[in-house]
Amino acid sequence: MLFRKKKNLNEASLGLKIGAIFGILFLHVPLFFIILYAFTTEDKSYQFPPPGYTLKWFSIVLGREDIWNAVGLSLQVALISTLSAIVLGTLAAAALFKASFFGRDYITLLIILPIALPGIITGISLRSAFGVAGIPFSTWTIIIGHATFCMVVVYNNVVARLRRSSPNLIQASMDLGANNIQTFFYVILPNLGTAILAGGMLAFALSFDEVIVTTFTAGQQTTLPIWMLSELIRPRQRPITNVVAVFIICITFIPILYASYMTRNTTDTDGSSK
Amino acid sequence: MIKALELKNINKKFNETVALDNIHLEINDGEFFSLLGPSGSGKTTCLKVIGGFEQPDSGNVSLFNENVTDIPPFKRNVNTVFQDYALFPHMNVEENVCYSLKIKKIPKIEQESQVEEILSTVKLKGYEKRKPSELSGGQRQRVALARSLINKPKILLLDEPLGALDLKLREQMQIELKNLQRQFQITFIYVTHDQQEALSMSDRIAIFNDGKIEQVDTPDNIYKNPKTAFVADFIGTTSLVSKQLAAELFNYNSAFSIRPENIKINNEQDSKSEFNAKVVVTDIQFQGSYYKILCKANDLTLTALHYVDTQNTFKINLGDNLELSWDKIDITNIND
After folding, report:
1. Could you give all domains of chain B from N- to C-terminal order, each with its CATH number?
2. pLDDT, tens only, B245-276
3. Do B133 and A269 touch (CB under 8 A)?
């Protein structure tokens, strides 16, 4: 086997194929189990195969107000922190992309830092900062915490797009008679649009399932990930968590499919052949 | 003759680097004018000053006798074709070409007829719905031209527009550009570092070096009568002889330039020319219809051409001793 001549160098070896299949299974089989146990009749342990199947957990979830409050809060936090991240991240990218001034590299580093720092550091430092400033913990403190790293995602996406775009696009637009405002709406915004969208969706996803920073910046509020974490510790009605997870899988699929649909043509759109 | 452009005392510095050093330039209406020079010589900066994308530190820019120094690019009746074309990637060909008409709020029906006309002029009919990423380099170039020309600018600025194309396509586009310029009867100001391109297309050329203009003249005159050593060396191939060497070897009182095609190679000792040099062959380069012969004699280096045809069977080898000769009429004096 080892010394057999390959007929086609482009074809992957058997070992690689098996490895790839195992890799994909490893990533996706757990998802299958989550869905499977949403329907199980056993509510204390994950027993395989499930002793029976039922839909009763779905009706219980629909009736539980605490779950829907957590979902609502998570959506609210993710939405507001993403929107502010889009505004701040795009503006920061536009400001730092072409400008050259003393300390520019340090500011760039400071902007990117929140995503590189462990969440626990961000969380502790925000908690003590809010304490020092006398700001009571609320939904807004969670939003501020999330916005710090959401902004980085948008910033990185927009900077990457700006780097790939021809620097002459703006000049070309002005050259063809457009003023600053027209150039912004007809050329800059449409060009950055998909990058902002992609960055925003990633930011939304990051915020939606954030646990660590939330733990440190929340008061009595319970976001969905925190609710799930506390629910897992309790050994009763386990399938409820699975049902919620199934809902989330379904909901997150929509924006992922939409984002890949929106950005399908933008891998190579620069007018340059350099 | 109408003056399309006048630059007066233009100075421009980037930090401490002088990009333009007291530039004076006059370009006539309808001229195909090239700004030629090596990279970093200031030619592109000069073009940006004309287009309004760079503000000169001092000096005046006039278009058709109107001072436009402080007028922003979108109010100048000048359009630019950028080096990387700068096509809007999110728009298709039609939308790109139509952009300036949309800005000017020209009625839709008129927009359509104008786009159709200009696209057929640049031979891009049938490509209306393509995105720039779906076009070849030559096609993108045509879209960029159409997008500028649809404005009917009085002056079209072109910043090394053919730089990204391969040789065959470049030669074809040179002819098309020249035809377009004749057809539209507008002034083209063309930036290039390719001397062959500048010589073959231009009515006049300005040679840039180090932020200064070395010479402004017709291609003919620039080739035959270069005013400075830089111009002689930059345009075509030439051998430069310094003042000291000229005095020593040829008893001649000026530095001069001699083109290779004017140097005769004497295989028999029958030279009655005014200049003679005994040299050794240091390199031979095959160029298709001729050999380029590089020769040396002490400090003197000369380049001569050796044409190969069926009658001329004389063969030159590396290390051969040759006698080269030329006449006074063939040389150009240069300020050393």
Report:
1. 3-229 (3.40.50.300), 239-334 (2.40.50.100)
2. 888 888 888 888 899 988 888 766 666 778 88
3. yes
Give the DSSP H/E element, type plus range, for residue B328.
none
For residue B100, the chain A residue with the least C-alpha distance is A176
Q: What is the pLDDT of residue B330?
A: 87
Q: What is the dihedral of CA B56, B59, B61, B62, to 10 degrees?
A: 170
Query: From the candidates B87, B159, B170, which should be mutated to test the interface with A, based on the most A CB atoms within 10 A?
Result: B87
pTM: 0.73
Cβ of B74 within 8 Å of Cβ of A178? The answer is yes
CA A118 to mean position of chain CA atoms: 16
pLDDT digits (tens, 9 = 90+) for A31-71: 888 888 888 887 777 777 878 888 888 888 888 888 888 88
Of B53, B86, B148, the CB nearest to A271: B86
For the cut 50, the answer to whether the pLDDT of residue A272 exceeds it is no
Contact A168 B84 (CB under 8 A): yes
Burial A83-93 (b: 16+ CB within 10 A, else e): bbbbebbbebb
Domain extents in chain A? 76-224
- Selected from 2.40.340.10, 3.40.190.10, 3.40.50.720, 1.10.3720.10, the CATH number assigned to the domain covering A76-224 reads 1.10.3720.10
Q: Give the per-residue pLDDT at A10.
A: 72
Q: Which residues contact B309 (CB under 8 A, 6 or more apart)?
A: none
Q: Over the stretch B178-217, which tens digit does the pLDDT of each residue have?
A: 999 998 899 999 999 988 899 999 999 999 999 999 999 9
The interface pTM score, or ipTM, of the predicted complex is 0.77
| Neighboring chain A residues of B84 at a CB cutoff of 8 Å | 166, 168, 271-274
B164·A271 Cβ contact <8 A: no
Contact yes or no for A176 and B140 at CB 8 A: no
Output the CA torsion sign for B40, B42, B46, B47.
Answer: negative
Question: Would you state the pLDDT for residue A8?
Answer: 64
Q: Which residue has the higher pLDDT, A73 or A260?
A: A73
User: Does residue B50 contact residue B189 with C-beta atoms inside 8 Å?
Assistant: yes
- Chain B residues with beta carbon closer than 8 angstroms to that of A169: 86, 88
What does the alpha-carbon distance between residue B235 and residue B215 come to, in Å, rounded to a whole number? 11
Contact A271 B88 (CB under 8 A): yes
